[in-house]
Amino acid sequence: MQPTKNIIIIGGGIGGAATALALHRASFEPVVYERTKVLREVGAGIALWANATHILKKLGILEDAIRVGHLTANYQFNSQRGKELVNIPLDGFELPVVGIHRAELHQLLWRNVPSEKFVLGQTFEGFEQEGEKIRAYFSSGLTVTGDALIGADGLRSRVRGILLGDQPPVYRNFKTWRGLTNYIPRGYRPGYIQEFLGLGKGFGFMMLGKEQMYWYAAAIAPEAQPDAPIGRKKGLEIEFQDWYTSVPELISATEEVNILTTDLYDRPPTQPWSKQNITLLGDAAHPMLPTMGQGACTALEDAFIVAKCLQEQQDPTTAFQHYESLRFPRIKLIVEQSLQSANMGKLNNPFTVALRNTFMKFMGATISKSFTDFHAYRA
Ligand SMILES: Cc1cc2nc3c(=O)[nH]c(=O)nc-3n(C[C@H](O)[C@H](O)[C@H](O)COP(=O)(O)OP(=O)(O)OC[C@H]3O[C@@H](n4cnc5c(N)ncnc54)[C@H](O)[C@@H]3O)c2cc1C
Q: In this structure, what CATH number is given to the domain that contains residue 34?
């Protein structure tokens, strides 16, 4: 058998771009096929916990990420009026936690890979085995052949659909809004991620690089619920008007075009993700709710580990089986914990919310340990 060399990656989001970089650093020949004509990410922020900044360090881009991001030292949960429930220190690791604009992270990943490794405007349609090789075809008529194929094509992955033919992702009756503004609210505590928990709703904010504030809100909602008739921003202003002062301040300081809304889905974790010389990665393999902020972080871990497995094992089928067996137990825990956290956030009866808040206050050390255990993982 020839050593595995040419790897087809479907999807150039954070997961696909990180995989291209990890494989490029490991002397493989990856090529990413991305359906959009421009490499881009949505206008929102992201928290990179220590488990992810570890990967950036391994890929040689941590210093650059720190330069364009913002160092974060505390993760604080509060009641909706701003009474502290738990404060999790984040600076106990050998690696920092970085708040970063998604586009900055994405650029750092793909700019470190030769540009010809990204083929844009190509929508993946299907694949077929050709002996030990895999042939992928695209709606444009393009066909390409490689030694292995990695599906990093996100929540509604076509690679997954063909490979596994399983059920669609599950809507969890929760939607989010994300906003970006240069306004720094009066109640902002430097270096903190501050979250506020109310009745069936939550709100959080953090600083990104370049003095940008990133905020996010979540609320119980039916799938595909349209914006309030008075408009997205006005609707949010009303929803959060009596919350801790920073919350309505941030909403009103944000232009409506800078407020995104997204329905939240996940999948109960199941195996397999891989068959022969094809595997999945990131949201294609394991979409999760964003309550632990680990979707992109675990996609970075996947990218690094899949490259390592391909380096250690010539046969891609064996390498992908090993990759999946290393990833599944950790991912299962994170997907389940993210769903549990969302369920806590969805409590909307005053009595159960008061109980939850009291529980959080008294179980601070346990909650803190559970978060830091996830962040302590080193791929
Ligand atoms: C509200 C919200 C907040 C979040 N906050 C955080 C956070 O703080 N920290 C964190 O770690 N994670 C967070 N996440 C999760 C994170 O955004 C995702 O897990 C991550 O972006 C997944 O990356 P991916 O590359 O796997 O998929 P995607 O980013 O979805 O990329 C998939 C790519 O594949 C392309 N594609 C799709 N189909 C095809 C096709 N047929 N042919 C070619 N290309 C195709 C798409 O165009 C896209 O570029 C959050 C998510 C949400 C919704």
A: 3.50.50.60
Query: Is there a domain that residue 378 lies in?
Result: no
- Give the count of domains, the chain: 1
Tell whether ligand 1 has an atom less than 6 A from the beta carbon of residue 248.
no
The whole-angstrom separation of Cα 58 and Cα 61 is 8
In SS3 terms, 212-252 reads as CEEEEEEEECCCCCCCCCCCHHHHHHHHCCCCCCHHHHHHH
Contacts of 226 (CB under 8 A, 6+ apart): none
Q: How far is CA 305 from CA 19, 55, 332, in A?
A: 9, 10, 16
Quick one: pLDDT at residue 42? Answer: 84
Range of the domain at 104: 6-68+99-168+267-349
Whether residue 39 lies inside any domain: the answer is yes
Determine how many CB atoms are found less than 10 A away from the CB of residue 2: 9
Please give the DSSP secondary-structure letter assigned to residue 189: -
Residue 41's pLDDT is what?
83
Ligand 1 atom, smallest distance to 44 CA:
3
What lies within 8 Å, CB to CB, of 371 at 6+ separation is: 75, 88, 292
Residue 15 contacts residue 302 (beta carbons within 8 Å):
yes
User: Residue 1: is its pLDDT beyond 70?
Assistant: no
Give the closest residue (by CA) to ligand 1 atom 15.
295
**Hey, what amino acid is at 206?**
M
For ligand 1, atom 29, name the residue with the nearest CA. 13
- Ligand 1 probe mutation, 19, 34, 339, most atoms within 8 A of CB: 34
Residue-averaged pLDDT of the chain: 96
**Does residue 365 lie in a domain region?**
no
Identify whether the C-beta of residue 88 lies closer than 8 Å to the C-beta of residue 73. Answer: no
The number of C-alpha atoms within 13 Å of 50 and in the hemisphere containing its C-beta is 19
